[in-house]
Design a protein that fits this description.
Layout lengths: L7 E4 L1 H6 L3 H8 L4 E4 L4 H14 L7 H18 L20 E3 L5 E3 L5 E2 L3
Parallel strand pairs: 1-2, 1-5
Antiparallel strand pairs: 3-4
Length: 121
């Protein structure tokens, strides 16, 4: 986790409950940043589930997966508004047009933004 630069990491309680290995739990205790849990809102769960249904991914996602995605959706909305949250698969949002994307470290394309660390998934 520390390879992902963030001031804090956020996950859902189910993800922490899945970590049973003693060594992995010890590693979490030694994190140099805060690890918090958060519950997704009903709105976030509904939006993420609807999107996953449209892409055909819903059957492959566990309850914990959906909840992590929902918390991520919720944090994005809280921190940056809904402008970068898609409602339809393949949708091009205004911020993506005209060079609004940049190459991330490691070559992956993504929005030019600060990362919020996410544990889990």
């Amino acid at each position: 986790l520390e390879a992902i630069p963030a001031d804090a990491y956020v996950t859902v309680p189910e993800v922490l409950a899945e970590i049973r290995d003693r060594q992995a739990r010890a590693g979490l205790q030694q994190l140099q940043v805060e690890l918090t849990t958060r519950e997704p809102s009903d709105e976030a769960l509904a939006r993420v589930s609807a999107f996953a249904r449209k892409t055909g991914d819903l059957p492959a996602l566990s309850r914990a997966d959906l909840r992590v995605l929902a918390v991520t959706w919720q944090l994005e909305k809280e921190c940056n508004g809904a402008v970068r949250l898609r409602t339809e698969p393949g949708e091009i949002r205004a911020w993506q047009k005209g060079g609004g994307r940049r190459r991330e470290e490691g070559g992956a394309e993504g929005p030019a933004r600060e990362r919020s660390g996410q544990a889990g998934g």
